Amino acid sequence: MNIMLFHSTQGLRPAVLQAADRLRAAGHEVWTPDLFDGRTFDTVEEGMEHNEKIGKDELLKRAVLAAAPYSERGLVYAGFSLGASIAQTLALGDEKARGLLLLHGTSDIAPGVTAEDLPVQLHVAEPDPFETDDWLSAWYLQMGRTGADVEVYRYAGAGHLYTDPDLPDYDEEAAEATWRVALGFLESL
């Protein structure tokens, strides 16, 4: 599979590169664009401040430019938190998208979007301050209306970015379970 993997609001941290290596070891080709031009942040708040300075439109433009050279191959879009929201936006706009793997995040869904039979898998903490139960219920229903084939996995007690071993949110058991399921998902595409 060809995978475009987007980083969180904390930037292209070692955990993203480690995730890409894990995916490559499973036989996938993976690209990890740096939407923050080398900047990384120790906290979500610092990253969000930087993200707001760049602006949503500019971030999406950077993501589209990163994916464009590979989109003809049929990409699986994937991302962590902010990167998941970017991946979702791109996948729902790319008729050649092969799948969508969301780790720790989702995004608004534009009215009238269709994604007939697009395989989608979401992994998220439970509870998650950025992905509340009400939000996830509404998101799930909206994704269903697009025609996507959606699976949601919740990890009780894990922190928001629980797959990043360098952050306080890290939960080894939840992270390993996520990767087992996600690798199976990618293998099925």
UniProtKB/TrEMBL annotation:
Gene3D superfamilies (alphabetical): alpha/beta hydrolase
Hydrolase among keywords: yes
Highest taxon above the source species: Bacteria
Gene Ontology MF term list: hydrolase activity
Location of the Dienelactone hydrolase domain: 3-187
Stored InterPro entries: AB_hydrolase_fold, Dienelactn_hydro, Dienelactone_hydrolase-like
Keyword line: Hydrolase
Any Pfam family hit: DLH
Annotated protein name in UniProt: Dienelactone hydrolase
